What does this fold into?
Amino acid sequence: MKKISPLPAAFATALAVSVLNHAVADSSDGNSATNQAENLPSVLVIGTRIPTPPENTASPVTVITRDEILATQQRLVADVLRAETGVDIVRSGQPGGNTSLFLRGANSSHTLVLMDGIRVNNGFNNAFDFSQLTVDNIEQIEILRGPQSTLYGSEALGGVINIVTKRSAGIPTGSLQVEYGSFNTWLTRGSFAMREGKASVSGDASYAASDGDRINSDSDALNLSTRAGYDFCSRFKASVLATYLKSDAGTPNDRFTDDPNDRYQTENWLVGLTLEAD
It folds into this structure.
C-alpha cells in the first residue's frame, strides 16, 4: 500500500511505503502502525492521580488524541501544542534550537512534563527542551492547566503536560516513510507494533536533516522511541519505556552576523519502568 505524505516544503517530493503483515481477510481497517495503537479509555490520571473522567477534574484540562495529532500534520510535539489555548512555545533561532513551553504565562521551569507518568524535566534548570520531541510514538497529549503543586510539587506551578506513548494492539504492523524537500531537507521515519498474547511492543525511529537557507543553519536530529509491556493479569501490568534524542543545529544568529561556528547540540535519553495496578 502506498500513500503520499505531507510535503515538507515548496516543491518537495515524498514517498511513503506501509507494510502490513498477517493481514486479516475480513479487516476493513487500513491504518498503518501509526494508527494501530490501543484506544485508551477517556479517563485522566494527571488531574487527581487516580483514573478520573476529564469532566470531573477541578482544573481545566485538554486531551489531544492521536487522530487530532495526525490532523495537524505536524512533526514535532511543540508545533501541536502551539495551537492550544494558554500555551506559548518559544524557540531560540533556527529549527533545532532550544524550544521552551510557557503554560498560562508561568515560567518554563514551572511546567511539569511527564512521559507515561515519568518526570522528564531537566534536573539542572527544571525545564524541558521540546526541540526534537516528535509525535511519531505518541498516542495522546494531556494538558492540565493551573497550579498543581499539591499533587506534583513546585515543578507544576503552571500546570502539567503528560505525553502518553502508543501501546500495540491487534495484528503486527509496520511502516516506512521518506520525504525530501528544498534546501536538501530529508525526513525518514520507521515504525512497528505487535502484540503476542500478554506481551506487546511498539517503536518508532526518525531522522531529519537539512542544509538550511543560511551559513551555519544546517541541522540534523535522531529520535528513537520504544515501549514494551506485559500484562501479568487483568489488574496488574508492567511496561518499559525507552527514548533517545540527539540533535546538532547551527545557530548563525542575526542576518548581519552569520556566525559560522556557533552550534547547539543536545543528547537526551530516558529509560523508565511503569507499573499499573487496580
User: Anything to note?
Assistant: Confidence is low (pLDDT under 50) at residues 1-37. DSSP finds three helices and 15 strands in the chain.
